[in-house]
Specification:
about 850 residues
Length: about 850
């Protein structure tokens, strides 16, 4: 890897979120929140929102003072702060309330106002360092015990640094280093080998590395190293020789197994722990948006995920993105031998002598020695014969005879002979057809191919001419070419931006499009990149995603989409290119400047700013792989360098927290595990955050209210709220899950029990009463109906009887009349 700084500093918030961009201390609590101490209050950051805590005279549970000097979280989860005014303040996350530590002795209470640092030791004791010296808080929290060294040792005063170790506590004061031993319960003095005994001996910072070594940062005499086992002490010589006074070291942090960072007034210094050699220095650069925002760095933090954070005076809070496997070549820092004159790199080539040539998009070529830096710049000089007329380098290749070939926009091709410094312009007399050169390719048979915006040509070494390639109709092939590839059978493949994939017959100089099998997807219309890998697969990057041909020697090819197991990542490249510039590492992973793809595990890993990846606009065909496996990708603002052997994918699994809980718009305790909705409540909402603070805007979420939602509801970082209204009384369980920044679901879910209380008309007794009333009403209706039917029956019987009587009467009358008529006729006769 090139010996240059790695990583990018990314600003978090602004002067409105963090007043005046001044930070005194950073801390992460056990829940995963980032706490930012400032002279203007305490701020909690969840990756999205800055929640500021300020003193409020109307609220007795608000923070006592706005100037925060130091803060820690104790074993019981409470957060202890040193404030001015106020002294020692305690914050309880379960109640979200502040209280002031009250001692029985008013004089001791007043001394707490001068405390500047605090720490909890391995026995649970709370130590306070102040102007007056060192104090230990009693178990009952009603008093403090002051400690001092014994004569002839100097007194303890101006304690600015405390460090809890297994045997006790180390104390850094104005007269140097002291220590307290748990067993003897006394304070001793550890004289350091001061460079200048007359200068200030103030210690500002203490840290213990994983190998047990103690590192001591001073106000003006640099860095010291102490081996506790042997008592050996040494001063670490400054990386800046000749200074009468060294920069103050405000904070020390071991960032990796073999690297220590020093927060200083002049930026951040990097020290290699194994040999105490300086690795580099981070400083502010107003021309570089990814540099330190300000040189006055006061506090360093490594969070639970391994992410590094920086805070200081004037620079606010910055997150350090990156890892040693990923580095950048840019125009800054200006004093670096690896700084480029132009970072707009459109082509990259490693020469046979190990030099790396970087062709820019207008400013010629920069030649890089991997150990020294930039050793040569080849600028365009249109008036000088044997020089480049233009500075836009589109492609570079070194041929087997040692000659160098350059494609230059607009529509120029140059050749530099092995022993010459002059560039020969290739003309139409040599068969060059005046097209924009897109890719120059040297195959295994030592043939040089030219891919352009209008076809392909082969350089004939014996004649010094280019021969054009034809299509199946015996017409000049005029597709624009994006890439070449050669398979194990020495077949050449062309990626066309017009019509997809072509097979090139080198003997006949003819291209043909291969046949596709019945199970193949359709031929992609535009192919941006090709890679033939060590597993004999041909990979195609297209405008519609990544595809692969498992057997390029088959008569009929089968093109299939690349298998990607994670649905979120699979959707990212659906109908999108993965970056065109495909390379393979020794582990079989496929790389571009945008992604890492592991075919064996079907895993796609996005490369983002959080990994330290930055290049501006990535330029297709601007990439190269060195003989030792280093990958280089060019862009409009940087050259991205990746060492795949050192690369560590982000695997942190964040917890999900509720940043706000509301019932009918009224705020509840965000740390509550259960809520109860009164009968008249219309609904509740929960605002949540997955605490992967490395790239919170890349997180995805899903939530489900068990007992109500039949399935998950999905959302992203822009909509982090679950809201429910008009729920029926009962018990529910809200579950929220989050991905990390790479869209992998974390097993650490958030759960909230929700109880909806019923209104009187929703209670069981009311429902039973209502049912009984309904039954009674139904019984009454039935009884009434039965009575009505009975009455109707009686009425009908009465009417029938009356009708019957009428009929009988009529019948009697009829018989009487009949008998009378019969008697009358008999009498007349």
């Amino acid at each position: 890897m090139l010996p240059i700084n790695y990583g990018l500093f990314q600003q978090i918030g602004n002067e409105e979120d963090i007043p005046d961009n001044v930070v005194t201390r950073l801390m992460q609590d056990k829940q995963g929140y980032l706490w930012i101490a400032t002279p203007a209050g305490l701020i909690r950051f969840d990756g999205y929102r800055f929640r500021q805590h300020l003193h409020d005279e109307q609220d007795p549970h608000s923070i006592a003072g706005n100037f925060i000097f130091d803060l820690i979280q104790r074993a019981d989860g409470s957060i202890w702060l040193l404030t001015s005014p106020g002294g020692v303040v305690i914050y309880r996350p379960d109640t979200e309330q502040f209280s002031v530590l009250q001692l029985a002795d008013p004089q001791q209470q007043s001394l707490l106002q001068h405390a500047r640092t605090l720490i909890e030791d391995s026995n649970g004791g709370l130590w306070l360092g102040s102007r007056q010296g060192l104090a230990l808080l009693a178990k009952d929290q009603q008093s403090v015990e002051f400690f001092s060294s014994q004569p002839p040792h100097p007194p303890i005063s101006q304690v600015r640094a405390l460090l809890a170790i297994e045997q006790g506590v180390l104390i850094g004061g104005s007269e140097g280093l002291f220590y307290y031993q748990h067993e003897q319960q006394i304070v001793g003095y550890l004289p350091l080998p001061w460079l200048n005994s007359e200068a200030s001996k103030q210690i500002l910072s203490l840290s213990q590395s994983t190998d047990g070594v103690i590192w001591i940062g001073t106000a003006s005499q640099g860095l010291y190293r102490l081996e506790l086992n042997t008592g050996h002490m040494q001063h670490i010589a400054s990386e800046r020789q000749g200074l009468q006074s060294e920069s103050s070291i405000f904070s020390l942090l071991q960032v990796s197994e073999n690297e220590l960072w020093l927060a200083r007034f002049d930026g951040i210094a990097r020290l290699q722990l194994s040999n105490q050699q300086w690795l580099g220095h981070f400083s502010a650069d107003i021309t570089d948006r990814f540099s330190l925002a300000h040189n006055d760095v006061r506090t360093l933090l490594k969070d639970q995920a391994g992410q590094l954070w920086v805070g200081g005076y004037g620079g606010g809070v910055q997150r350090f993105n990156g890892q040693p496997a990923i580095r950048l070549l840019r125009t800054s820092p200006k004093n670096s031998p690896f700084a480029l004159a132009s970072a707009n790199i459109s082509s990259i080539l490693e020469r046979s002598n190990g030099e790396i040539w970087l062709g820019s998009r207008g400013d010629g070529i920069e030649v890089l020695d991997r150990q020294i830096g930039v050793i040569q710049r080849i600028l365009p000089s249109p008036d000088d014969p044997g020089q480049l007329q233009h500075g836009w380098i589109t492609s570079m290749a070194e041929h087997s005879d040692g000659s160098l070939w350059l494609g230059v926009n607009p529509a120029q091709l140059y050749r530099q002979a092995p022993a010459s410094k002059d560039f020969q312009l290739i003309s139409t007399e040599q068969g060059f057809w005046q097209a924009n050169v897109r890719r120059i390719f040297s195959d295994s048979q030592q043939r040089l191919w030219l891919g352009t915006s209008s076809g392909v040509g082969l350089w004939q070494q014996d004649t010094g001419q280019f021969s054009r390639v034809y299509d199946a109709r015996q017409q000049v092939f005029t597709d624009y070419i994006n890439a070449f590839a050669e398979d194990q059978q020495q077949q050449l493949w062309l990626a066309s931006g017009d019509n997809g994939l072509f097979r090139l017959n080198a003997a006949t100089l003819q291209v043909e499009q291969p046949l596709l099998s019945a199970t193949s997807v359709a031929m992609p219309a535009s192919i941006l990149g090709l890679l033939y890998d060590a597993q004999q697969r041909l990979w195609l990057d297209t405008t519609t995603g990544l595809f692969v041909i498992d057997d390029s020697s088959a008569d009929a090819l089968t093109i299939r989409p690349a298998s990607i197991s994670n649905a979120n990542n699979r959707s990212q490249i659906s109908n999108h290119s993965v970056g065109a510039n495909l390379l393979q590492d020794s582990k079989g992973r496929i790389w571009s400047q945008r992604y890492v793809y592991a075919p064996a595990f079907t895993e796609l890993y996005p490369l983002t700013l959080a990994d330290g990846v930055f290049y501006g606009t990535n330029w297709y065909r601007s990439f190269s792989k060195t003989r030792d496996g280093l990958m280089l990708f060019g862009g409009s603002d940087a050259v991205l360098l990746i060492d795949p052997s050192q690369f560590r994918p982000w695997q942190y699994q964040p917890a999900v927290r509720a940043s706000a809980i509301l019932i009918d718009g009224q705020t509840q305790h965000a740390n509550a595990t259960a809520i109860r909705l009164p009968a008249d409540a219309r609904g509740f909402s929960v605002e949540f955050a997955g605490l992967d603070l490395s790239a919170p805007n890349r997180l995805h979420y899903r939530y489900q209210l068990q007992g109500f939602d039949p399935d998950w509801r999905y959302t992203d970082a822009s909509q982090r709220q679950a809201s429910y209204t008009n729920l029926w009384p009962g018990h529910y369980q809200l579950i929220i899950e989050s991905t990390n920044r790479n869209q992998l679901w974390s097993p650490h879910r958030y759960q909230l029990s929700v109880t909806v209380l019923p209104a009187f008309w929703q209670t069981p007794w009311f429902i039973v009463l209502l049912i009984m009333l309904l039954l009674l009403l139904m019984a009454s209706i039935i009884k009434l109906r039965t009575r009505m039917l009975r009455n109707q029956a009686l009425q009908l019987a009465f009417e029938v009887e009356a009708r019957t009587d009428e009929l009988k009467t009529v019948q009697k009358i009829w018989w009487k009349k009949k008998k009378w008529r019969h008697w009358a006729r008999s009498w007349q006769a």
